[in-house]
Amino acid sequence: MNLDTGRRDILPVMLPCKVASTWITPRLTPTLGLLLCIGGVLLASSAWAQNGEAVLSPLQVIIKWAPLLLSGFAFNIAISLLAMLIGTLAGVGLGLAMLTQQPILRRIAWAVTQFFRNAPWLVLLFFVMFLVPFQVTIFGMTIPLPDWLKATLGFALPVMANVAEVVRGAVRSVPTTQWEAADSLAFTRRQIMWRIILPQCVKRMLPPWMNIYALVAMATVLASIVGVSEMLTLTAQVHAAEGGRPELFAPLYGFALLCFFLYCYPINLWTARLERRFQIR
Amino acid sequence: MNVIPDWFKSLYEAIGLNFSVFYDPYDWDRYLDGLKMTLILSVTTILLSLIIGAIGALLQTGPSRILRAFINGFVVIFRNTPPLVQIFFFYFGLGTLLPATETASGMREPLLSNTQWAIVSLSLFAAAFNVEIFRSGIEAVPKTTVEAAEALGYTRLKAYFYIILPLALRVCLPALNNNLVNLLKTTTLAYAIAVPETLYQVKQIWSESQNVFEMMVVLLATYGILVGVLVFIMHRWERSLRIPGFGQ
User: Fold this and answer.
1) pLDDT at residue A1 greater than cutoff 50
2) What residues form the membrane-spanning segments (chain A) (predicted)?
3) What domains sit in chain B, N to C, each tagged with a CATH number?
């Protein structure tokens, strides 16, 4: 509320009531973000073109290398999906282990979860990359473990711990009366868990699970630090192939930012919508 | 006096576990340097991200439409892109565009060093999350409280700093706690632009002393302890801020 400077003696309550106008909250839609980025790149490239030299402008460089960079991005997505699959399966097991009635198993599961949740992703990635052998021999059969597979395992570990927490939280959020009701209907503990509690939890677990997925998708670029040739590694290589001009850094990394933004933002919006729809009051 | 180094030395001789940091003073110094850098990174980024987050939340709930759109865009972009790419974008992309001076020996000296760029980009990344967290806290402050403040003649800014923010802070502390722990873990990304923090130094040690497994254990324990200390401090803070009758 604005105080009229000329009338200091008048209390704010005595001023005429001003109805605040309601604005539509501005939102940055994906298309708008895309347009902004393209505009920025065009602006940068037109400034470059004025130099009138026979080198490619940043936009031309990106268009030229886009197929390679996008294939790298697809590899990132593949890693994230596989890590999510492994992590979810392991995480559900770990989450259920945290809910068992055997105290020892429960303690161990709790400790494992806390450990993997509190360690930085990059440190866990190093952990797996350096300590998992490059091939394993099972029953006389030698199975090679390529570095991307090891990186996937490295991402699956924190996913497992986070999913375990989500599972535990979701099961805890089901009212205890349901357990009692099922008990009185002579269901065993296992039956209650699998046929009554977990089916209800799926809905509650979906939004946080999607949040974790968005985090994994963004974390896959860490694999470039440990030498997996995914999008960021390719970006650095493209930059070197174009002569290592310093003004190419911003557009190339901007392109990587844009790819991840266009992939993660819709997931984020969808998660928010599901959260609103599933809201438990 | 030398009990600990001697013990670790005998451990190495007895079963081959080479914890070189604990008996080699050179390795120990490097490890301490890395730890110091991690602490500097985390403390500065935590403080900066809190400040940027609070200002962002103030602007986001404010009357200016352009500023609101700007903050919205900032939050959306920084939340949905990988922090590592952000660091690269800032350090390589923007760092090379900024004017640079030359040292006496003719070397290019950029305006901001890699450590400073790491601080800038990590603060912005965490601030994007903090804005959302603070906003949810502000929305939880009862409307009547804000109206009461207005009736008492508080300006918008004063009401925000003296009434809304202190209450909102108490509501959003658990979420804030989570985000700050996340930020502490994200400081390891500074490794990618060669900021000599713990991960970087530990990697130097293990590639020279050939003790990857032992240093991994030290590294994980270090971050476990750091996160534990941060969580402890935040819980203490949460308890000291508690107002009887507000919240739980």
Assistant:
1) no
2) 73-100, 121-142, 148-167, 212-232, 252-271
3) 40-99+107-241 (1.10.3720.10)
